[in-house]
Amino acid sequence: MKELYKIKDSLVLFDEQSSLTLWDPKEGWELKLEAHMIDFLKAFAIPATKEAAYRSIATSYNVNEQFFEDIVASFLSQKLIEPVSGAGKTNKPNLQIGMFRTPIISLKECLMGEGTNIAFLGMPYDLNVTYRPGARFAPSYLRKVSGSVFQYDSDTLKGAYDPVKGKQILQNIRMTDIGDISSVVFSRNGTQFDSLEETIYRLTKKNILPTTIGGDHSITLPCVKGAARTYHKIGIIQLDAHSDFGLNQVEDWRETTHHGNFMDLLIEDERVVDIVQIGIRQLVEGYLPHAKVKQYPGKSILLLLSEMEDRLNSEIPYYLTIDVDAMDPTVLSATGTPLPGGFTYEEMNEVLKTITKSARIIGLDMVELLPGDSEVDGVLASGLLINLLSNVMERLDEHCTSYSKSLT
Ligand SMILES: [Mn+2]
């Protein structure tokens, strides 16, 4: 039997500023190829023998078979294609359901496809907590319970009618779930952080809104770094009971970073030019002012919404991070370091509405949710997310224009 070959599984192919790039997220390399070489490579998109591949390109390209054989040999030596083992076997159908019943697809499919607006991903990581762990279970928990708040319909893209807003929301918005950043065992501040950064970078570069489900709050660090690689200059809006910084000198971030100090690194990052913190109420040693940081402590924002609206910089995109402990523990108790004096559900929605009205949100995360036996906390978190996403998407057209501007 003739050997079958196909494009290597981990390879991602995408258009980038009118050239075609191949990327191997597993091995971390990138390669630009001429258009005709890409066509030759695509002959192996589905398993094919060299002869069949040659026949499929011979109609468009006037090359002889020996020339094509040499190209195939170079593809093989560069590991762009690989022999298919066990040809004819089918994969098991993927029965997993994503956030809000979105289909779970691979990052590769998400990046190669067109028109995705929102990509959910999970970062089941809680090695950086100072107190109670458990946030690693939040992504699978939210996938399970979020369908009771909103069910995505990929056939009709009809969204849903919201009786409170009195209108259809999320209509024609394409969402997907690319699963979790995964590892058999996570290492502390290890390579899984690098994978998350790379993933956020790739998604934002393709104008897809990454919506990451943590995880403890330290996962925001790679998320912001990834977004900053795309936009070069960004702001951060943080809803949190804790400021998560101590203005410490950080020597080796992999050694020292945890969920209560990761903002130190982001404050130092030159690409982060504005930080707005809302809901801060933790007692600390002393007041720590910093030129980049504007704090609206406790629930003070509720009286200062218009001030914040004016203050947010319309020239830069913002990354939004929601620590669920911004909410009052009597509202949401499923969190690792709860503090009294937080927002109600309606107040959270009000604040988020103002933020999305005045800031261009290019990525977001929800962190520090520690699921217990109850599904109520998950429904609450899902409700916040869907309100937030519908608000962000309402400004999508405006966003797209600004996105492409800031992508140059
Ligand atoms: Mn936090």
TrEMBL record:
SUPFAM superfamilies: Arginase/deacetylase. InterPro entries: Ureohydrolase, Ureohydrolase_dom_sf. It comes from Rossellomorea marisflavi. GO terms for biological process: putrescine biosynthetic process from arginine, via agmatine. Pfam families: Arginase (PF00491). Keywords: Hydrolase, Metal-binding. This is Uncharacterized protein. PANTHER family: ARGINASE/AGMATINASE (PTHR11358), GUANIDINO ACID HYDROLASE, MITOCHONDRIAL (PTHR11358:SF26). One of its GO terms (molecular function) is metal ion binding. Belongs to the arginase family. PROSITE patterns: ARGINASE_2 (PS51409). Gene3D superfamilies: Ureohydrolase domain.
